[in-house]
Amino acid sequence: MPLISGRYSILSSACFHLLLLSFVSEYAESGRMVKTLPGFSGVLPFKLETGYVTVNESELFYLFVESQGKPKQDPLLVYLIGGPGCSALNGFFFQTGPLVLNTSDYSGGLPQLFYNEYTWTKTSSIIFLDAPVGSGYSYATSSQGYYTSDTESMAQTHWLADHQEYVENQFFIASDSYSGVITPILALALIDGNEAGLQPTINLQGILSGSPHTNSSLEANSKIPLAYSLALISRSLYESAKNSCNENYVDVDSSNAECLEDLEEIDECIDPINDENILDPKCAALSPKPEQQARRSLMAHSRNLRLPFFKTQDYWCRNFEYKLLDIWANDKIVQDALHVRRGTIKQWYRCNISLQENTYTYNIESAVDYYKNLTSFGTQVLLYSGDHDLVVPYISTLEWIESLNLKEDYPWRPWFVHGQVAGYTLRNEYNGFRLTFTTLKGAGHSPTQYKPLECYNMFERWIHYYPL
């Protein structure tokens, strides 16, 4: 019996394994080594390969970084970025990749790059993928090719899960933010294909996801309780809303005037807050304008910026870091170094808002049932959340985990890095299926951006089967 029925099964298993075979040969033919990059001094201290693979009318761009540890023994990850429509470079520079931007003394021109000492590629090989089509440097060969959905996005990524040299390596699916909803479905598709005898067999061991989007309604409804626990709204207002709305703050009946009034008052308290991390300032969105001189462009798109960055007397916004990546990734010399096909994209975006609003179909409301199906297999799962994130509140993740009715393996307890509490964790299990959940203390949405040291320690321990 296939784990995923109907159209999803066809896209997820048979197509994947057939396309995987073409990927192996395509990878060998089109993948090109990158030994130097503009902005980085000297030869890159890691093996980087970039290229495209064709899927129907899509040309998906990827960056492959080989493990700097023991590549023949270390696990292989495919890393799916959130959004939907955010670029692989977002994960490559801001989350788990081997390079970071020099933001401490930027004064114009092409940004400098530094090695990231907390890169996950120190202990694993990672494929960073521009998916769905329209993300980053990926493109379609027809206008219709840009229209995609949750399930089609999932199908497009399957065949990138392998390489001839890594067939026997342990394989993991990693994701961030919105791609969390796709991750368990992709895992089930791989299991389904393996059980059907499709080749090559994928040595899937587990999945991991940061700030894992899983259930839209549950996440939206958890925002107000978490805001209260973080002292963003008063107790009296919270209790009033809880009673008037009957603890349901989503899709409120228009006749419930008392609830709507409470929610409006709550919005006045929360709206000025940066919901990705309540500790960060809330800043205006930045749009990439690489054709402008860098300093003038940065100044034009921020109300408060004064250069150089990160001086105590200056105002700071995380969007300034994103702006530097806009400048770097849109530079033609950079694109040539990455072997981006000339003329295929007019402008690179860190996150393609047009894709999110116009060409992407959101057709998976909840992935909880897929996690329930995964409990029948010996899959290892790691879910990690920032405890100051209002986008995917950690309490919503805990709530749907509890609905799986797993057996408690390790109870809620602190975990440590260098003798300090890095967050809190628990582990549940069921017949070999193990689900570890952990918080990152003080982190926001996409915890690796806020706590790289702690996240690397978390990942290194978990991926090598050590307890947190």
UniProtKB/TrEMBL annotation:
One Pfam family hit: Peptidase_S10
Keyword vocabulary terms for this entry: Signal
Signal sequence, renumbered to the chain: 1-30
Top-level taxon: Eukaryota
Claim: Signal is one of the keywords in the record: yes
Family: Belongs to the peptidase S10 family.
PANTHER family recorded: SERINE CARBOXYPEPTIDASE-LIKE PROTEIN (PTHR11802:SF400), SERINE PROTEASE FAMILY S10 SERINE CARBOXYPEPTIDASE (PTHR11802)
Name used for this protein in its record: Uncharacterized protein
Originating species: Hevea brasiliensis
